[in-house]
Amino acid sequence: ILSLLFSMTSLFGQIIVTEEDEIDQPMAVHKNERGFSISLASNGIGIGGFYRFAMGGFSYVGINTEFFVLRDDKETDIAFNTAFGPQVAKFNDINRFFTVPVNMEFKKRIFTSSIENNFRPHLMGQGGVVFGMNFPNTIIVEGQEVRPDNQYGVSYNFVGGLGVDFSTRENNFATVRLQYRFVLFNQEIASKENHSAIEIKFEIGGLL
Q1: Distance between CA atoms of residues 205 and 43, nearest Å
Q2: Backbone phi, then psi, for 20, in 5-degree steps?
């Protein structure tokens, strides 16, 4: 009888362990990613796209391309009302500066085993080339209109940031990331060499 009870207890224990093991545990999301982005920088705004390949250790390697429209440091918009309706006047609007960064990127998920799949914090690093183009506005010099020469430049840029992915559907996600972009040209373009900036990036993407 004791042997029978012992056997039944052991079998019951195995059943309990097996049932616990079979409880569905959420699988960590780790697939290729692609999507579009909008960046709000301290000196302008940018749009872009990306594609990332899922690698081991919940990391990604990918490529990122963006197009930025940047403001002058001292550019100011002043709104006022007139008889013809609201108007906006620009002051110190000298340059029309655009940049196109083309970067390789490395993304690493963190806290993968302790946070739900629909909230995925990550670290991001990027590096690559950046193309700069400046088409200055006409300025007044000694009472005469002068159109400065257009400027072009190529340099490097590096990005580091911390963000979070949010699952919106089974294979879709949205991202918010705070990042810093270091950009330094070897000669002045749009009145300065250093065009580094803090950015808040928003991404909408899909998993493949």
Answers
A1: 25
A2: -65, -40
